[in-house]
Design a protein that fits this description.
By secondary structure, the protein is α/β, with parallel strands linked by helices. The longest helix is centred in the first third of the chain and has 8 residues.
Length: 156
């Protein structure tokens, strides 16, 4: 696999990671599918969602694959009155990433990243490597350091 921009950033930061490649099913880009392909529980697969706050603009939220983003909590912890999901058509233009390959690392612009606190209970988590078909396996602490993540209970 060709190195992604996100991988180069982790290399520059001297962060250890493993890339786990998997077969992409264009009809099923879900975290459940990714988990089955990489052999990890869905709770350890963190999906990256792109959100817009009414005061602070675009941000990224990383939550467990089986979870649902708690928009009210995210609004509070991000300093917004309300937040809403960015329309799928906008995601690539804002981040440079496509659905199923959106990573909190190496987006076009550095957006604030909010990580669900459940990540801390795992030794290793998976996060998109910036392309469909590849996940980074890394420690939650290394992800937090790489993106200066704000850690809060943002999923349910």
């Amino acid at each position: 696999m060709k190195k992604t921009n996100a991988a180069r950033i982790l290399d520059t930061l001297k962060i250890k990671y493993e890339i786990k490649e998997y077969a992409v099913d264009i009809n099923d880009l879900s975290a459940v599918h990714v988990a089955s392909q990489v052999g990890m529980p869905v709770e350890k697969i963190f999906k990256t969602l792109v959100v817009r706050g009414d005061k602070n603009g675009v941000l990224m939220a990383c939550i467990p694959g089986g979870g649902e983003l708690d928009l009210k909590t995210l609004a509070v912890v991000s300093g917004n009155k309300k937040v809403e999901m960015v329309h799928l058509k906008e995601v690539q233009g804002l981040t440079g990433y496509i659905r199923g390959g959106c990573s909190p690392i190496g987006a076009k612009k550095e957006y604030p990243v909010f990580l669900d606190e459940s990540a801390k209970k795992w030794d290793i988590i998976a996060i998109s490597a910036g392309v469909r078909g590849a996940q980074f396996l890394l420690t939650p602490a290394d992800l937090i350091r790489a993106v200066q993540a704000n850690v809060h209970p943002i999923s349910r």
